[in-house]
Amino acid sequence: MHQFRNDYSEGAAPEVLDALLRTNGEQTPGYGADEHCAHAAELIREACGRPDAYVRFIPGGTAVNAMCISAFTDDFEGPILAADAHPTAHETGAIEACGRRILATNDPFGVLTPSEVERVYREHVAGGCHATRPAMLYLSNTSELGHVYTRAEFDALCDIAADLNLAVYMDGARMASALTAPGNDLTLEHLASRADAFTLGGTKAGMLFGEALVMSPRSDRGQRAIERIPYLTKRAGHMTAKGRLMGVQYEAAFDPDLRNEEGLLPYFAHARRANACAVQLAAGLEAAGFEPYVRTNGNQQFFWFDAALGGRVAQACGAELTPAVDPTGHDRIVLRFVTSWATQPEHVEELLTALADL
Amino acid sequence: MHQFRNDYSEGAAPEVLDALLRTNGEQTPGYGADEHCAHAAELIREACGRPDAYVRFIPGGTAVNAMCISAFTDDFEGPILAADAHPTAHETGAIEACGRRILATNDPFGVLTPSEVERVYREHVAGGCHATRPAMLYLSNTSELGHVYTRAEFDALCDIAADLNLAVYMDGARMASALTAPGNDLTLEHLASRADAFTLGGTKAGMLFGEALVMSPRSDRGQRAIERIPYLTKRAGHMTAKGRLMGVQYEAAFDPDLRNEEGLLPYFAHARRANACAVQLAAGLEAAGFEPYVRTNGNQQFFWFDAALGGRVAQACGAELTPAVDPTGHDRIVLRFVTSWATQPEHVEELLTALADL
Amino acid sequence: MHQFRNDYSEGAAPEVLDALLRTNGEQTPGYGADEHCAHAAELIREACGRPDAYVRFIPGGTAVNAMCISAFTDDFEGPILAADAHPTAHETGAIEACGRRILATNDPFGVLTPSEVERVYREHVAGGCHATRPAMLYLSNTSELGHVYTRAEFDALCDIAADLNLAVYMDGARMASALTAPGNDLTLEHLASRADAFTLGGTKAGMLFGEALVMSPRSDRGQRAIERIPYLTKRAGHMTAKGRLMGVQYEAAFDPDLRNEEGLLPYFAHARRANACAVQLAAGLEAAGFEPYVRTNGNQQFFWFDAALGGRVAQACGAELTPAVDPTGHDRIVLRFVTSWATQPEHVEELLTALADL
Amino acid sequence: MHQFRNDYSEGAAPEVLDALLRTNGEQTPGYGADEHCAHAAELIREACGRPDAYVRFIPGGTAVNAMCISAFTDDFEGPILAADAHPTAHETGAIEACGRRILATNDPFGVLTPSEVERVYREHVAGGCHATRPAMLYLSNTSELGHVYTRAEFDALCDIAADLNLAVYMDGARMASALTAPGNDLTLEHLASRADAFTLGGTKAGMLFGEALVMSPRSDRGQRAIERIPYLTKRAGHMTAKGRLMGVQYEAAFDPDLRNEEGLLPYFAHARRANACAVQLAAGLEAAGFEPYVRTNGNQQFFWFDAALGGRVAQACGAELTPAVDPTGHDRIVLRFVTSWATQPEHVEELLTALADL
Question: Transmembrane region positions (chains A, B, C, D) (predicted)?
Answer without folding.
Answer: none
